[in-house]
Write a structure and sequence with these properties.
23% of the residues lie in helices and 23% in strands. It is of the alpha+beta class. The strands form 2 sheets. Strands 2-1-7-5-6 form a 5-stranded mixed β-sheet, covered by helices on one side.
Length: 118
């Protein structure tokens, strides 16, 4: 089977043609968060419906985010896992802190407990 070379989060990855971005990443030790994608080959069940959109990634040159669980890899593809980038410490990102504060106010009202700094 032909091997495809692509880049995921700056790391060069080789995977067989027909592999999805998610499977190529997972086999290369790169975590892309996912929820609805399950492979249970031992019981003959496979679900890759891309309904949750948790695994969306940016593919450079594309004008929208793509679900990594159903998007096949292409030679030279450059994938950026934005979800993993967003899932970092918020303390050094003032805008994200404001978004969290706004969501907290929506939930608890104006008298919400101030989050502890790390």
């Amino acid at each position: 089977m032909r091997m495809i070379r692509l880049k995921i989060d700056g790391k060069i990855v080789l995977a067989p043609e027909g592999t999805t971005i998610l499977n190529a990443a997972l086999k290369a030790g790169i975590h892309i968060p996912h929820l609805c994608y399950m492979q249970m080959d031992d019981i003959g069940y496979k679900n890759n419906c891309a309904s949750c959109r948790v695994c969306v990634v940016e593919v450079k040159g594309m004008n929208r985010l793509l679900p990594s669980c159903t998007t096949p890899i292409v030679e030279g593809m450059d994938v950026v896992n934005r979800i993993a980038e967003e899932d970092t410490d918020y303390s050094d990102r003032p805008m994200k802190e404001q978004k969290i504060k706004a969501m907290t106010v929506e939930t608890f009202g104006e008298e919400y407990p101030e989050p502890e700094k790390c």
